[in-house]
Structures are given as structure tokens and as C-alpha cells.
UniProtKB/TrEMBL annotation:
HAMAP family: GMP_synthase. It holds the Pfam family GATase. The active site is at C79 (nucleophile), H167, E169. GO terms for molecular function: ATP binding; GMP synthase activity. Residues 194-384 form the GMPS ATP-PPase domain. ATP binds at S221, G222, G223, V224, D225, S226, S227. It comes from Algoriphagus ornithinivorans. This is GMP synthase [glutamine-hydrolyzing]. Keywords: ATP-binding, Glutamine amidotransferase, GMP biosynthesis, Ligase, Nucleotide-binding, Purine biosynthesis. Homodimer. It catalyses: XMP + L-glutamine + ATP + H2O = GMP + L-glutamate + AMP + diphosphate + 2 H(+). Its EC number is 6.3.5.2. Pathway: Purine metabolism; GMP biosynthesis; GMP from XMP (L-Gln route): step 1/1. Catalyzes the synthesis of GMP from XMP.
Length: 509
């Protein structure tokens, strides 16, 4: 990837948001930890220093060799990043008299300034800091203030180095995007030409030269990430790619057949493997959620290894890994804590010894969707809700049987179809049904029943890290309950999950 902005992460919860906002401006950027700065080459047009949960006054606070960067290319310090600039060059950073958290207004703002143009007097910004810059070093000039924070923004005279106390990446900073645009476009001179099409062309070229005439194998899940990754690899190397889609018996109703059909329409060379019984056998009698997950993971590896062995001369393993999975988490304790444990390569299945190719490992989820749409992957795949790898096994509380899977598939199908038919599917981030390990008394016709209870769950979320239950219309929920109880044998009660994450999780197991 050519032109880019480098974001140095000091551990703020907002760092990924900064990257999102820069990329929304069609400028490529990467996040790297403060203690592992990549080589500064000509492709890097500017640096953003993130916030941090630490204070610059803490012993062992995250630090950086700013001398080697200042003046070489534009720098924007955000919150901690700005305090670090002030602190290191002789300014004074002290605890705020009151912790500043929430909205504030830039009452004084130097609108002639290149960083602040196209913003307005009184602009609302989001503050979240425990320290305040009380005194700036010599040569640093205040360019914006709020009623309680004099140094809300500063510039170092004679160089393109800036600091801001507020968070432009948070949408509550209503003109934050203007400020970031001013920085990356006007000040850093980025061309705003990083689009899905550019990404696709560059990635296909890159895959072609990396893979050459080798063969690649890849496991598909029916989800967005693996489907988009496979399509990109397929565009690059065609039938040198073989995909494997495993029916683990824990998918949604008809999902295996439907997804397999879509993949064939997309021209992918996919081997569909029916391994239902193998998974059910491995799961028999297991009730502990982690034991179930482990069994599923183990059998998946066995099945995939068997299939990979059937393809002659495979050199690469394709994977749908996306950016949030690879961003190194910053350790405020220093580089040693980021060392990863090493696998015992000898003990791994053969396919795991293949070289890995991950064409999406620089993209966020919504960017993967955009790329998928640009590749004309059907909306039924691009727009689908996330679905966990262990599938319905973690939505059937207790042990798994084929009969329970069948029951839950029917319930889930009614609910998901209902959401689609009522135009609610796209308003929900993830939805599903859970089969509870209890029975309850009911009455049907003249007969007393003693049957299963199912829970319905629908949540809104951005990334699955936090989630709110969705206020689905009562009328819709009533309809779903009727339909499920009338049509699914063995279920006589439906409840709706109204818990948010945290403290609950999205899945029940
Ligand atoms: P929780 O239940 O932790 O789920 O709030 C957050 C998101 O992760 C999915 N999830 C999983 N995905 N393997 C997966 O591939 C798993 O074991 C797993 N557990 C949860 C869940 O569906 C939600 O999208």
C-alpha cells in the first residue's frame, strides 16, 4: 500500500476509531504500538499520536523518541499524544482540577489556522482526560481553548507539529472530521485516493506475485470475511484455489446447501464436506461450553486436514483474518509483555504448516463489506449477521443431539425469516434463538404439555465487544411466538432476552 498515515498507539480505547476516521477520508493508515515504530519511509505522510489510559507523569509512562520524528513529517498528538509533546519539551502537565469528561466548546478558536479551518466558533468537542497542559513549552502556541481548558489545541511554531486535548475521532466532536481532514489532506498532503477498487487492484496484484503458480486451500464459513478473502484470492489465481466448506451439523436451516450454491455461482471451486455425524459423535454427552467448543475445533481441524491432503502440492493456507484481529495490543508495561508464545510446529496438523495468506488483514469489518460489494458478492452473503464458528452448539444449552439441532433450526428459521419479512433484519447486528435446557408446562387443545422453552435474542452492536438488546416491536415478537409454538413440535414457550453486553454476552454459552 503506498501513501499512508502512521498512527502510534499509546493504548487508548479510541485508537481504532482514529484509524476508521482517517480511512473514511479515503486515506490508508496503520496502527502500530508506540514501542515498535516502523521505519519512516517516504510512503508515510504524517503521524498521529493516540491517547492513553496513562499519565505522562506516571513512572514508566509510554514514551517515544520524538526528536527523531519532529520536523521530518507532520505530527498530530491527540490527548496523551499532545500531553507527551508538551511534557517532553519543558511544558507543565498537571492533574485536572476536575476530571474533564464529556462535551465542551471551543470558545476561542484560530480559524485561520490550517488545522482548524472549516470549523466554527463554539465547535463542540469530546473531552476525556485526567491531566491538563497547564503551561506550554517555548515555541508552542495555543490555537484553541474551551472555557476550562486553555490549551485545547496548540501548534509548534515553524514546524507541522500539533497537539489537541480533545478527541476528533469521536462523533460527539461534531467537526472532528474537518480537523482530521485538514491534517491528513491539507497538512500531510494525502491524495484521498484509497478506495475499495484501488484496494482490490493492489491486492490482486500482490496475491499474484506472492502466490505465483502455487496452490492454495482455504476453509469457508459462509460468513463475510472468508467469502471476500476467497473471492480476492480467486480473482488473483483462479482455480489454483480450492475452498473447503464443512457442514458441521450446527449450521442454520438449509444454510449448507444455500451457501454452497452461492459459492458455485460466484465461480469458486468449493468442496462441500458433510461431516455432521463426525461432529455429533464428538459432541455426544458434552455439556460444558468450553468442552463443546474444543471438540468442535478439534474435529474441524481433522476434517480440514483430511481434505487438504486430497489436494496435491498445496503451499498456502488462505484465511479471512481482518485488521482488528491483528492489531498488536499495546502493553503499557513495555515490549516484553507483547511477546507471543510459540507453537510447537511439529505437533500441528499438516495444513497448519502451510504459509498463510490473509488478504483482508489490513481492513476493518465494514471495509470488508465495501470490498465485497465492489466484488459483486451477493448481498445474501455480504449483509448476513455474524454467526459463531461453533454454530448452534453454543445456542443449545447442555448436550447436543441431532434432534435438538433440528428443533432449534426450525425456531431460528422462523425468527430470522420473520426479521427479513418485516424489514427488521438489517436493523439488527446479530440475532438468533437459544434452546434452553428446561421444560415448562403448557396447554394445547385439551391437553397439558411439558415441552421446551426457547429464547429469542436480537442485539445492536458495532463490533460485538458491547451490545444492546434491540427493542423489537411487541406485535412482531407476538407473531414470532405464535408461529414458533404452532409450528415447531416440542416447543411450548418463547421468551425474549432483554440483557445487554456487558454484563451479559451475546451468546448464552
Ligand atoms: P459474545 O457471546 O462473547 O460474542 O458476546 C461476541 C461475538 O462473537 C461471536 N462468538 C464466537 N465466534 N467462535 C466464533 O467464531 C466462538 O466460539 C464464538 N463465541 C462467540 C458471537 O456470535 C458474537 O458475534
Amino acid at each position: 500500500m503506498a501513501e499512508q498515515i502512521l498512527i502510534l498507539d499509546f493504548g487508548s480505547q479510541y485508537t481504532q476509531l482514529i484509524a476508521r476516521r482517517v480511512r473514511e477520508l479515503n486515506v490508508y493508515c496503520e496502527i502500530h504500538p508506540f514501542n515498535n515504530v516502523p521505519e519512516i519511509n517516504d510512503d508515510i505522510k504524517g503521524i498521529i499520536l493516540s491517547g492513553s489510559p496513562c499519565s505522562v507523569r506516571d513512572e514508566g509512562a509510554p514514551d517515544l523518541d520524538l526528536d527523531s520524528l519532529r520536523g521530518r513529517l507532520p505530527i498530530l498528538g491527540v490527548c496523551y499524544g499532545s500531553q507527551l509533546l508538551a511534557h517532553k519539551y519543558g511544558g507543565e502537565v498537571l492533574p485536572s482540577t476536575i476530571r474533564e469528561y464529556g462535551r465542551a466548546n471551543l470558545d476561542h478558536i484560530d480559524l485561520h489556522h490550517d488545522l482548524l479551518k472549516e470549523m466554527t466558533h463554539g465547535s463542540t468537542v469530546w473531552m476525556s482526560h485526567g491531566d491538563t497542559i497547564k503551561k506550554l513549552p517555548e515555541g508552542f502556541k495555543v490555537i484553541a481553548s474551551t472555557s476550562s481548558v486553555e490549551v485545547a489545541a496548540f501548534k509548534i511554531e515553524g514546524e507541522k507539529t500539533y497537539g489537541i486535548q480533545f478527541h476528533p475521532e469521536v462523533t460527539h466532536s461534531t467537526e472532528g472530521k474537518n480537523l482530521l481532514r485538514n491534517f491528513v489532506v491539507s497538512i500531510c498532503g494525502c491524495a484521498q485516493d484509497w478506495t475499495s477498487d484501488v484496494f482490490i487492484d493492489a491486492t490482486i496484484e500482490d496475491l499474484k506475485s506472492k502466490i505465483g503458480s502455487d496452490k492454495v486451500v482455504m476453509g469457508l464459513s459462509g460468513g463475510v470475511d472468508s467469502s471476500v478473502a476467497a473471492t480476492l484470492i480467486h480473482r488473483a489465481i483462479g482455480d489454483q484455489l480450492t475452498c473447503v466448506f464443512v457442514d458441521n451439523g450446527l449450521l442454520r436451516k438449509n444454510e449448507f446447501e444455500e451457501v454452497l450454491e452461492s459459492y458455485k455461482d460466484m465461480g469458486l471451486n468449493v468442496i462441500g464436506v458433510d461431516s455432521k455425524q463426525r461432529f455429533y459423535d464428538a459432541l455426544a454427552g458434552l455439556t460444558d461450553p468450553e468442552a463443546k467448543r474444543k471438540a468442535i475445533g478439534r474435529v474441524f481441524i481433522e476434517v480440514f486436514d483430511d481434505e487438504a491432503h486430497k489436494i496435491d502440492g498445496v503451499k498456502w493456507l488462505g484465511q479471512g483474518t481482518i485488521y482488528p484481529d491483528v492489531i498488536e495490543s499495546v502493553s503499557v508495561k513495555g515490549p516484553s509483555a507483547t511477546i507471543k508464545s510459540h507453537h510447537n510446529v511439529g505437533g500441528l496438523p499438516d495444513f497448519m504448516k502451510l504459509s498463510v495468506v490473509e488478504p483482508l488483514n489490513t481492513l476493518f469489518k465494514d471495509e470488508v463489506r465495501e470490498v465485497g460489494r465492489a466484488l459483486e458478492i451477493p448481498e445474501t452473503i455480504i449483509g448476513r449477521h455474524p454467526f459463531p464458528g461453533p454454530g448452534l452448539a453454543i445456542r443449545i444449552l447442555g448436550d447436543i443431539t441431532a434432534e435438538k439441532v433440528k428443533t432449534l433450526q426450525e425456531v431460528d428459521h422462523i425468527f430470522i425469516q420473520g426479521l427479513k419479512n418485516h424489514g427488521l433484519y438489517d436493523q439488527v447486528w446479530q440475532a438468533g434463538a437459544i434452546l434452553l435446557p428446561i421444560q415448562s408446562v403448557g396447554v394445547m387443545g385439551d391437553e397439558r404439555t411439558y415441552e421446551r422453552v426457547v429464547a429469542l435474542r436480537a442485539v445492536g452492536s458495532v463490533d460485538g465487544m458491547t451490545a444492546d438488546w434491540i427493542h423489537l416491536p411487541y406485535e412482531f415478537l407476538g407473531k414470532m411466538s405464535n408461529e414458533i409454538i404452532n409450528r415447531v413440535k416440542g416447543v411450548n414457550r418463547v421468551v425474549y432476552d432483554i440483557s445487554s453486553k456487558p454484563p451479559a454476552t451475546i451468546e448464552w454459552e
